[in-house]
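As a warm-up, study this chain.
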Amino acid sequence: MAPALLLLTLGLAVVALRTTALPAPHRLSLREGFRRSVARPRGTLLLAAAALVPAALVAWSIPVLVPLLPGPLAFAATVVDLRDTPEGATD
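Now compare it with the structure written out below.
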């Protein structure tokens, strides 16, 4: 049960991060974040591996830094979203 709960939590965190990286005309919509996560699995895996796992390790080892983690995570989600967008195209 623990691995399933861990994967579910990781998936929800990635969808939430993809939601925060939506461009300006979009409102915060979990449906749109989920759609982007499923449509671009490479970026989703990159976000999970490069941002969430190290953030969890930092939060576990140095709990004082937990209030500082949302900034770099939102930045990573934005960069992954820009990376997945074809050059010159806008959503």
